[in-house]
Amino acid sequence: MQKCNNQHGNIFFLIFRGNFLNLILARLGQVAARRASLNNADEAFGVSRNKLGNMTQERVLIVEDEENERTGLAELVSGWGYRTDTASDGVEALEKIPVFAPSIVITDVKMPRMGGMELAEKLNDLSQSIAVVMVTAQKATDTAFHAGRLGVQDYIEKPIDFRRLRSILTNIGEILNTRTENETLRRSLRDKGALGRLTGASRQM
Q1: How far apart (Å, rounded) are the C-alpha atoms in residues 180 and 39?
Q2: How confident is the model at residue 18, as a pLDDT?
């Protein structure tokens, strides 16, 4: 009788252990599927979680009158490592620029109060150091012609190709970095040249 009870206990233990292991394996499968799903979503939007540690210090101001598009684009660009802020139109953008000090502005063309073209024109008058990316639902050739005259760095059509947008931001970042390095070198050479002239002009003791 005792032997029979032991056998039943062993069988029950084996069944319990098997069910427990199955639950663990099922849970691990769910976790793996979730990770794969997140990775696929990241790839679809051009985001690599392994590369998010390489954060950029570029500041991007997103100007869009549609709230959902504005917040969604800001979250996406933030996920690429940029510091972002948003504005609902050109008027609000001009109010935020002195405080936020963006190096890149992504702006829609048609917005209430002030659209992207007028904003780009005012930015071109204010500062040559702010790169503007124009977002348009119109034919790119029409927008490119007018935008090029305003010093717009690049343009992209709606619906936005996120891979192309990320490539545009990367290229602009490289241009801005090169511009900063050249300005630093120019300033250094100018300072050394001034010191050289001062040294050459001084009388010997």
Answers
A1: 35
A2: 54
Question: What mean pLDDT value characterizes the chain?
Answer: 75
Residue 196 has pLDDT above 80, yes or no: no
Handedness of CA 62, 67, 69, 72 (dihedral sign): positive
DSSP 111-133: -SSS-HHHHHHHHHHH-SS-EEE
The span from the CA of 168 to the CA of 156, in Å, is 9
Is the bond into 98 cis (omega within 30 degrees of 0)?
no
Altogether, the residues listed in the chain come to a count of 205
Which of 153, 169, 149 is CA-nearest to residue 161?
169
Place of tokens 């394996």: 25
For the domain covering 56-187, report its CATH number.
3.40.50.2300
Between CA 193 and CA 199 the distance in angstroms is 10
φ/ψ of 189, rounded to 5, equals -65, -40
Mean pLDDT within 14-43:
50
Give the helix, strand, coil percentages of the chain, each rounded to 5: 65, 10, 25
75-103 pLDDT per residue, tens: 999 999 999 999 999 999 999 999 999 99
pLDDT score at 135: 92
